[in-house]
# Entry
Amino acid sequence: MSAGIYKMLLAQGATFNLALTYRDPAGVLIDLTGYSADLRVAVSKGEAPVLQANTGNGQIVIDGPLGVVMLDLPAALTATLTPGQYVYQLDLTSPGGQVTRLLEGALLVDGQV
# Structure
């Protein structure tokens, strides 16, 4: 399955939450038990990440049986981003080590007043 394309809008200095439910093309939930996830944000493709969140640092939580991936980026983390446009990718890794790109696209950071 190819990655979904989704444009994210994030407010600088605010908590960012997003819940995604992973389903197959027939609409059946995909059990993500034992999976890990990694979100990388960069200025452009091929650049070093300016933000990284994953299941290891607790900023992504997976509810395996329900196929739900939840991003929870704290305000202190989003405050480190300069307003502007970035690119991101969200990858899932199965217990067997297979990496699947779940989502990718543009991430727009709206500045604070």
